Amino acid sequence: MKAKKKRNWRKWEPYLLLAPGLLLIVLLMGYPLLYSVRLSFLNYNLLTPNDIHFNGLENYQKLFSNPDLWLIVKNSIIWVVVVVFFQFLLGFTLAMLLNSQFRGKGLYQSVAFLPWAVSGFLIGLTFKWLFSQHNGVINFALQSLGLIDAPVSWLGSETFSMIVPIVGMIWYGVPFFGIMILAALQSIPVDVIESAKIDGASATQTFFKVMIPYVRPTITVTLLLRVIWVFNSPDIIYITTAGGPANTSNILPLYVFNQAYYSMDFGYGAAAGILMMEVLLIYAMLYLKLTSYEKAGDF
């Protein structure tokens, strides 16, 4: 009898140990998510607090009938694709350079990774000043070189407004890829590299046949996380352009924020937030499927 009770305890022991963590996740993530879903079906505008009621799919109909929605979605895709592509490309190059030995490597490494320690708010202010039409360094430099005749309105132009936050976000995120990929490169066993060289593999063959398979799991995870983080990071856009002019630099997270906290329409903002969550969920599922994540570490 005692042995049977002991076996039953062993059966439930893992779930009991996980229960505090699962409860915390449910409280911090599950409840807000369910509450947001509920809000998306309500007319919940704090400017009219006495008129809160269930309105069905009205918020979603209003969202998808908004002519600016598809411009905002397009901006979100451009924002993520351009930023993550250049962050990865420059971060990989930085990791490869730092993976070799040279004098002053420690100092250079600390300086190269410095942007990751700067807040997005400060980066936004810095790039807003750099690209200022009247007293910005970029316009001054371009005029000094004779490349432009008059100062360019980088932040107020529908053509160039997206460039400023994109450049700032690229600069901010390069160290993340650099740190992660450098750690993966340094974990490659030295004897594996030496064996490839002894077997007559060229530098290109060693890179693609030996190094890339080792760092592939890291690349897969960092790309997944970075796309989600960049998509959900409107702070630099908010500081530099605030999504303007005419939504030409607006993205979904910033749009949700503005609807909820400027228009005070929490029902409509919740509907836009649910759309944003669904976009990220579909992306994550497709990404994991296409990259064969469960086989990412196989050689």
UniProtKB/TrEMBL annotation:
This is Multiple sugar transport system permease protein. GO terms for biological process: transmembrane transport. SUPFAM superfamilies: MalF N-terminal region-like (SSF160964), MetI-like (SSF161098). GO terms for cellular component: plasma membrane. It comes from Harryflintia acetispora. InterPro entries: MetI-like, MetI-like_sf. The keyword Iron does not apply. Residues 73-287 form the ABC transmembrane type-1 domain. It holds the Pfam family BPD_transp_1. PROSITE patterns: ABC_TM1. It is a multi-pass membrane protein.
